[in-house]
């Protein structure tokens, strides 16, 4: 369910290489600064964005990230949406389990990212792709 | 930049990560360190991450792997300079950095390495001292 928020500014980044993952990280940091997230919250958001961008690259076969400064009433925040047209996640509950991985990772990407943000939504269809949306709000 | 530079100070290798690490550069660093430990007979590896704004699961795994590789090659690893916000995030992410020793800054990390190198040297035969005598522990 989409949150009724106002988008103040945003950027779209394609994710096809390691360097793109770094660029998404940097975009998340820049927007987290302009949304005036605290240092710890910036770090959490950027770390979550890094995990999810890498998932998009490694498991989704590439895709794109939209990073936005959003506002809901008096609160601002940063929303990051990761979209791929990859194989999708057959068992989402399993994929959200700590330590479970279909690849060579540590199995903390999806579950860890969820703990670092305030809102977390995944929609996925086998054969169609995966969209992960996260939001970190100012306190 | 495609490589993270590795400096040799006495029998310690010093790595200061000053770039936003791409995954393939992190992997290259693991391999380079393994090679360099063997080539220089280094006894310790000091990794300064004070410039890193985040440590995600990939970089965390790199640090654990480097610690394991160096242990197998008879060298100790100490990671220094982690920012408080990074530490908080790392714990919440669920990473424990198993097997990685940490110190607050480079000085303390050097002292930690010097201390553990001395202990190991004392266990050796007297005539096996040698090159390590030329390395003095930083005063603390």
UniProtKB/TrEMBL annotation, chain A:
Domain of life of the native organism: Bacteria
Cleaved signal peptide residues: none
Residues passing through the membrane, by range: none
Protein name: Anti-sigma regulatory factor
Gene3D superfamilies, per the entry: Histidine kinase-like ATPase, C-terminal domain (3.30.565.10)
Record-annotated Histidine kinase/HSP90-like ATPase domain positions: 40-139
Matching CDD domains: HATPase_RsbT-like
Pfam families, per the entry: HATPase_c
